[in-house]
Amino acid sequence: MKNVRLIDKIVFFLLLLGGFNWGLVGLFEWDLVGAIFGGMSVVSRLIYILIGLSAVYRFVIWVRAKISKK
Predict the structure, then answer these.
(1) Coil, helix or strand for 42?
(2) pTM of the full structure
């Protein structure tokens, strides 16, 4: 099995959390992160920022993989 770096595990978890959260928002109008950490608290905003940065990180990794295959 391929070694997975800690950053990739964290990014995977954050993207999973973000996707699950948006699914709940779309289906039930319920924000899991907001419910746990309180609306748009500093912690909630930090989590949303980390989820967004995780998406950018994965996109960059994907683009680099596509470029290296050419």
Answers:
(1) helix
(2) 0.85
